[in-house]
Design goal:
The chain has about 575 residues and is an alpha+beta fold. Among the domains are: about 10-165, no CATH class; about 325-410, no CATH class; about 425-535, no CATH class. It is about 65% helix and about 10% strand. It is built from 18 helices and eight strands. Strands 1, 2, 3, 4, 5, 6, 7 and 8 form an eight-stranded antiparallel sheet that branches. Strand 6 (about 380-385) and strand 7 form a beta hairpin. About 30% of the residues are buried. The mean pLDDT is about 80.
Length: about 575
């Protein structure tokens, strides 16, 4: 094991080298300035920007000015993230433990990644909305809120570090007592979830010959969905464990005796839970539902070696006005630049009397706002009097490809796929686009989408409502009440899940207004938690509910005199 000791010693010496972090940071800044002087954006354009410009050229429309501006900025952000962020991580590693010196590199890294992520999303959204690659109405307000959440999550990292730096030693101890079981619960539940899911998908991964890196990226993509599912349970168990441990060691009583209120004692735990809820809000806004709905589609795309993941499959759509029936085997998330196509397309046209007039069979198809539909390598069947009169292959172009251009087809990809989408797997921007595209649809059809729109904002705060209930039950001023509080908290958690699903289904069925159904469980259990917290902060016993089965007062039964009388002597 001498080689291992040498590696550890060399690692420690490298960490203690003077000016290593500052020197690396200066080199990264110099390379960035040199790339700007040499015109790095001309020789190394961004892939998303190039795809957007290519799409505009294919659609024969002018490139938006915002795309051209981002084409000059985004390559340098890519270079800075590639070079500068690893250097900043090196600086953070060297300064680990010194909170004051950590603030600058953490802040620079957070701002850099936030700018890069926002610029990348802007390119995709501008190309998506102004060029209407699928024909759906844009949702600028929903997209702007998405960018706000991205910036909030990334910039919150230095703010959390600043908060931890300024709190007192006693608050740090309370926070550390809570964070240790929280991290343990989250990692344990996530590992169990991955193992159970891997057992189900292992055969698919083997058949698609996926590498270990593909599997890791697959589960990292599912991390937002898993986070929204297991974080409320992890918060509940960790707060119960931390408060029970502190109660048994009489640490809470000692803090109260030092002049602190119960809210001040539990303030670090509540702030940590609030931060976890904000992260949950950001994940549940867009990435978590999309990851959940895309899980099976990604596995299918990996097995089929598709270029893009699949939004929906086996779509059947009938347009009563045009008398066309569409069937699409697989529908990708993007149709940009013609690289990603729909597969297994069948179009059946009928006359006014219901007899077939034409059927188009195409292995793949694409759509653009100017050219319209293009179907590839297929054939069309012409009907006369209900029977097939002719079968014609698609015409061949100059490049030797068999392409049928059909600008007369009025349907857009969004009008076809939107009726096959489930509200459970759609983010807020997609739900807003759906509601704008179908304003005259029946209320029964729109009720699930309206309910899930509000549910995207209400679901992350489940953990906070459960925390308000669990914290008073976890605090015990004697060793006697800890087990009962834990049992009551677990019971309340299952009741909360039942009530939440009940109100959610009532909203999806259109029986109650959507905003009431999703917030009602939080209001009920949050109010219960505030009442319990008030009783516990006043050092009063928690209220108990007793049911009187009878109004008769219990009476003490007198003991019987079991003594037998002695026989009379005169009788003998």
């Amino acid at each position: 094991m001498k080689w291992l000791q040498r590696v550890i010693q060399a690692w420690q010496k490298a960490r203690e080298l003077p000016y290593l972090g500052r020197g690396s940071f200066a080199v990264a800044i110099g390379l960035l300035i040199l790339s700007i002087m040499l015109g790095w954006h001309r020789t190394h354009p961004d892939d998303e920007v190039g795809a957007a410009i290519q799409q505009a050229q294919l659609a024969e429309i002018s490139v938006p000015k915002s795309i051209l501006v981002l084409a000059n900025v985004l390559p340098y952000l890519n270079l800075w993230v590639t070079l500068g962020v690893p250097v900043l991580l090196l600086v953070i590693w060297r300064r680990w433990g010194d909170l004051k010196r950590l603030m600058f590199p953490v802040s620079v890294a957070a701002v850099s990644v936030a700018l890069w992520a926002i610029a990348s999303d802007l390119v995709e959204y501008i190309a998506h909305s102004q060029m209407t690659e699928m024909g759906e109405p844009p949702a600028p307000v929903a997209f702007a809120f998405k960018l706000v959440l991205i910036a909030l999550v990334l910039i919150s990292v230095p703010l959390v570090l600043l908060y931890y730096r300024r709190i007192s030693l006693l608050e740090r101890y309370t926070l550390q007592t809570f964070l240790h079981p929280l991290v343990f619960c989250f990692v344990s539940f996530f590992s169990l979830w991955v193992i159970m899911d891997l057992l189900d998908n292992l055969k698919d991964f083997q058949e698609s010959k996926s590498s270990a890196g593909d599997v890791v990226r697959f589960y990292l993509g599912l991390l937002p969905h898993v986070y929204t599912q297991i974080m409320p349970v992890a918060l509940l168990l960790s707060v119960l464990y931390a408060l029970t441990r502190m109660s048994r060691a009489n640490e809470i009583i000692s803090m109260l005796g030092a002049g602190r209120s119960l809210f001040q004692v539990l303030q670090p735990i509540f702030i940590c839970a609030l931060y976890a809820c904000v992260l949950n809000l950001a994940a549940n806004y867009y990435w978590a539902p999309r990851a959940e709905g895309n899980r099976e589609a990604i596995v299918r795309a990996m097995s089929e070696h598709a270029a893009d993941s699949i939004m929906a499959s086996s779509i059947m759509f009938h347009d009563a006005q045009t008398h066309r029936t569409w069937y699409v085997g697989t529908f990708p998330f993007s149709l940009r630049s013609g690289r990603e196509r729909m597969h297994g397309v069948q179009i059946r046209e009928e006359n006014a009397d219901g007899t077939p007039s034409r059927t188009i069979l195409a292995p793949s198809a694409s759509w653009s706002p100017r050219v319209g539909w293009r179907l590839y390598d297929g054939s069309e069947m012409i009907y006369q009097k209900g029977s097939v009169a002719a079968i014609r292959p698609f015409p061949q172009n100059k490049d030797g490809q068999h392409i049928l251009e059909a600008p007369s087809l009025e349907e857009t990809p969004w009008s076809i796929v939107s009726y096959a989408l489930h509200a459970d797997y759609m983010g807020v921007p997609e739900i807003v686009s759906y509601l704008h595209a179908h304003p005259k649809a029946a209320d029964e059809k729109l009720a699930p989408f309206r309910t899930h729109f509000w549910h995207r904002f209400a679901l992350p705060w489940q953990a906070l409502a459960l925390m308000l209930v669990a914290a008073p039950l976890g605090v015990a001023y004697s060793r006697r009440g800890s087990v009962g509080g834990i049992a009551a908290s677990v019971f309340i958690f299952f009741v909360f899940m039942f009530v939440n699903n009940l109100f959610l289904n009532l909203g999806k069925g259109g029986h109650l207004p959507p905003w009431i159904t999703v917030w009602m469980p939080h209001l009920l259990f949050g109010s219960l938690g505030l009442v319990l917290f008030h009783y516990r902060s006043q050092n009063r016993d928690l209220p108990s509910f007793k049911f009187k089965l009878s109004k008769l007062k219990p009476q003490i039964a007198r003991p019987r005199n079991r003594r037998t009388p002695l026989p009379d002597a005169s009788a003998t």
